[in-house]
Specification:
By secondary structure, the protein is mainly α. It is built from 7 helices and no strands. The radius of gyration is 15 Å and the shape is globular. Pfam families: HepT-like.
């Protein structure tokens, strides 16, 4: 059985992060890119969101005894195999993990236009994944 308080705290943090990201998405691309505080905040809140999903996935897998996690990319696969994620959302999450790795490890090569595109077109992906974990409450 999963520990509801652990899930709830991370989901609450995700709600806050998404609220900030939604506000940042209201800027035009030019306005967004001309202010380091805007794109820096977007990068950080995306990273925090993606870290929260990894924490949630690890927690669920460990508490339910679903199998070993050797690397973060194992998490969506395990949850899909166990029927908690559909294939499309699992694939989307894998892309999110790849982007998280860029945010953390290859930040000097980060394309800020890509960050803006994520704000414009992929916040629903974050919400969909958030809804999956809300089901564990």
């Amino acid at each position: 059985m999963v520990q509801a308080e652990i899930i709830r705290r991370r989901l609450d943090a995700l709600t806050e992060h998404l609220s900030v990201l939604e506000r940042l998405a209201t800027y035009s691309e030019t306005t967004f890119l001309e202010e380091p505080e805007r794109y820096g905040a977007a990068e950080r809140f995306l990273q925090l969101s993606l870290e929260a999903f990894l924490d949630l996935g690890n927690h669920v897998i460990a508490d339910l005894g679903l199998g070993p996690v050797d690397k973060s990319r194992d998490i969506p696969a395990i949850l899909q195999q166990q029927g908690y994620l559909d294939a499309e959302l699992a694939e989307t999450w894998l892309r999110m993990i790849g982007f998280r790795n860029i945010l953390v490890h290859a930040y000097l090569d980060l394309d800020r236009h890509q960050v803006y595109e994520i704000l414009q077109h992929h916040l629903d992906d974050l919400r969909a994944l958030q809804a999956v974990f809300a089901e564990f409450l």
